[in-house]
Amino acid sequence: MGIILQDDQAKELVELTRQNNRMLKDMRRDAMIGGIIHFVWWVILVIVLPYLTWLYVQPYLDGVLSAYQNMQGQSAQVTSALNQLQQAGGNADLQKLIEQAKGFLGQ
Predict the structure, then answer these.
(1) How far apart are CA 35 and CA 27, in angstroms?
(2) From CA 20, how far away is CA 26, in angstroms rounded?
(3) Number of compact structural domains in the chain
(4) DSSP character string of 2-40
């Protein structure tokens, strides 16, 4: 037993099917565009932003590193000067002061 459709019902059914197909194609296209935008957004977050941050922060980090290395060199010079003073001998109070300075410098 088959379904018998009248001409108007058949035309309406065909039109509804076409509308449904158009909506499905639009939904697929929107999903594809959304996926591409989502991918580009994550590329920006994961690659571009850290790179730009590094470009902006690097000069400041170089300055801090240079200052740290400079302080290390000066600390070595002070330690060397204290060792020379201690080897030269001298006053007992001066020896205590030198030992305190060495303790302060972590020597």
Answers:
(1) 12
(2) 10
(3) 1
(4) -----HHHHHHHHHHHHHHHHHHHHHHHHHHHHHHHHHH
DSSP code of residue 44 = I
Q: Return d(Cα 80, Cα 57) in angstroms, integer.
A: 35
Residues 5-49 pLDDT 10s: 688 888 999 999 999 999 999 999 999 999 999 999 999 999 988
| Domain assignment of residue 3, yes or no | no
In a domain, 2, yes or no: no
Which amino acid belongs to residue 71?
A: M
The whole-model pTM stands at: 0.49
Which residues constitute the domain of residue 33?
9-105
